[in-house]
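Re: that chain you flagged

S.,

Sorry for the slow reply, it's been a week of failed gels. I finally had a moment to sit down with the sequence you sent. For the record, here it is as I used it:
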Amino acid sequence: MLRREINELLTQTGPGTPMGELFRQYWFPACLAEELPEDGAPPVRLKLLGERMVAFRDSYGRYGLIDEFCAHRGASLWFGRNEDGGLRCPYHGWKYDTTGQCTEVPSEADNSSFAENVKLTAYPLVKIGDILWTYMGDPATQPLLPEYEFALVPPEQTYTSKRWQQSNWLQAFEGGIDSSHVTFLHSGGLKSDPLFKGAKGNQYNLNDTKPFFEVADSDGGLFVGARRNAEEGQYYWRITPWVMPNFTMVPPRGDHPIHGHFWVPIDDENCWAYSFDYHPVRALTPEERQAMIDGHGVHSENIPGTYRPVANMDNDYLMDREAQKRGDYYSGIKGIAIQDSSLQESMGPIVDRTKERLVPADSGIIKARQKLRKAAIALRDQGVTPPGVDPAHHHVRSAAIVLPQAEAFLDAARDDVRVKPGMPVASV
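Prediction finished late last night. Pasting the structure tokens below so you have them in one place:
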């Protein structure tokens, strides 16, 4: 169990909170590039870390992330006109550029300097791969741009989606580093999902329901190793990297693309799950890309025009009890992503961790919570830069390997969990 005050520290991410300030040390996804597909595109409403903003791409192609509300009388700039290098409030015509600077107040005299003294809160917005990334911290300590492999490979080798999850970011993230539930919750997907099925490692997953966990520190976070029995004298290891505060990767299966996530707080009761697939040495096949678009693997099928899953809490995630009985889907819910989100949302917006009973299989979650808490307190009390800020910490991969029983997983897999451009991943 977790003390109530620690649970609150880890789950509250608004301005001025320890975890909110921790998140503000990092670049993280603000929205998908597809949401601002062209110069002068309509603005997009965003809420991140409890702050309401709009993202826009001006007529010159510059990206901006600014306070949603006009400084005049508080009208939402989502209604704004994207024109001639800025976003104009349609109420009284005040105009703002991508830095939040007010550039025009039409009611003022031509020689007035009033607009120069009006500036909205604004954050940088940078396109890398399929994502528009933001940094919401002190500009004086802005780190170098992120260097995650999935965002840097050629476009034909990667795909990213997102979905709205109605739970706190932490319970979503904890699912991302929990390999023990795969044997149960995702057992149907291992047999049928086009982005999972056919890998030799699937049999090890299904045959051994009692994984043994070891957790090792890394420069940017942790490596969580889940060990299962393989052939005689060997173990099957699935190694999950976590880079602080919210980047996780799923260990690979066969030659399928590699999966992973960013878990981004919207507010304390909602988060965005950014899900990516990429292959480091080849293009995604048309069939793989279409499977991702259709909501297979770690992706979801969303309601058209939104990023809310078709299967959601309002329709009981399209639960199929007959499919549950047959074993098509262990929980009766179709889709890897929705199987996860349905149970994480079922815990309530913020799960009461004072009531939980943890076991050794939860060792990765326990150590991640400890590392987050220590980093948030060290930042608050001593100004210590947390792990994962340095882009050198981003050069990690997940791995799935078979090792002799006597070998330590991270010693044997040290090269396998580091990015090697142009080289395939270690996979079974």
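What I noticed first: The longest strand covers residues 234-243.

Talk soon,
D.
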